[in-house]
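Example (one chain per record):
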Amino acid sequence: MTRYASIWFPFLLSEHAIRKQPELREVPFVLASRKKGRMVIDASSKLATQKGIFSGMVLADCKALFPELEMLESEPGKNEKLLLALAEWCIRYTPFVATDFPDGLLLDTSGCTHLWGGESAYIETIKEKMKSFGYTVSIAIADTIGMAWGIARYSPQNIVPEKKQYEALKSLPANALRLNPIILSKLKKLGLKRIDSFIGMPRESLRRRFGPELPLRIGQALGQELELIVPIKPVEPYMERLYCLEPISTATGITIALEQLLQTLCTRLESEGLGLRKATFSAYRIDGDIQQIEIGTGHPSRNTVHLFKLFEHKIATLEPSLGFELFVLEAPTTEPVSEEQAVIWNALNQNDKKIAELIDRITARKNTNVISRFLATEHYWPERSVKEAEPLWEKATVEFRSDLPRPIHLLSKPEIVQVTAVLPDNPPLFFRYKGKIHTVSKSDGPERIEQEWWISDGLYRDYYCVEDTEGARYWLFRSGPYEKEQPQWFLHGFFA
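Predicted structure:
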């Protein structure tokens, strides 16, 4: 059964201001902004509310009634920023958290409350945490979003038993249905202040008199109409969570938590024939701070030992302070593991396994740019005959040429060299490269490579494989023929 929790912050902005300026705790104050040429109250503190001052009132009128009232200027969009931050913090209680502007949050608590000992303990835990942050909250849990929203704001109870929405809804005021002010005003004029005074009326009658919103809201509260919410963070299909009875502040404790989560996640991936390509380990600190470390793999992997080694050296970057109370491991990127890939982890292929693990460890410690792999492409022009593999384990579709010599290191851009050669087509006798003169002792060529006319125009190249007196081997070419002007020579690669 799906269950929802609604968290209401009646003094969100004012209590945030008190957190920044504790001296305001004992002072009635409001936050206001200019609207249509006059200052209008956006939020009032608890003490100001007790004086009868509420949001929407004109500041000048309130100051006339209560001259001691303090005023702070509102920051545009502040409540949205606060709710987003609080929603992210609440992910420790459920992976599905949504903002409910302007002053609330919505949580899908299905399958989560038992981890805290039930719904009552779940609510009290959140309340105590919010209280420690300086926020007053009202929380309710029910089968529907609308029911939880209304109970949190207009009822002293905080838990509606399963399938008991109708009984709970009847005792609430009409405001608990999230209706617009025009409909509420019409209901009030007719004396329909409580929901039980009109909930039994035919829906068609309510629709004709008050429009479609009223029957829709009743249906949503009772679970008869669909209502969807969008979480602030998409819930990853492959996510494991580990709650801590006591805050964890040691590297040993973090290591044990990570190993346990990896074991659980990899067991699930194996049952579904998948391996992860990217994983994120999140640690939620008791003071609200959230810290993350990430890894990536070249091949889809579900080898817990290998994956832990990728995370291991990053554990030291986590700062537990007073301790972590929740750990979450997510695999946002997964891929099917074919039989061919699965063989990598068999004992019969230890060499392949070691190479794959070594590459993953290097990229985890440095970055993904420290290792490159190149594949052959269907081009004769040397610069176009190879490409970088993306991803690293991209399968080759073309074999490298083996009928003609090619350098093991091909320069991305040929470099000009000065050459002494016998005309017209003899190989170089000497060449100068980076200020050093190389005497050629052996040579092979020329191999003529024409421009690919369907791609670009230009001179042909005559390539020579040459070896100098020190035994180093180079790939040189002459651009075009000898004519009136001397053609240029270039160094394009190095042989082993």
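Caption: The first helix runs from residue 12 to 20.
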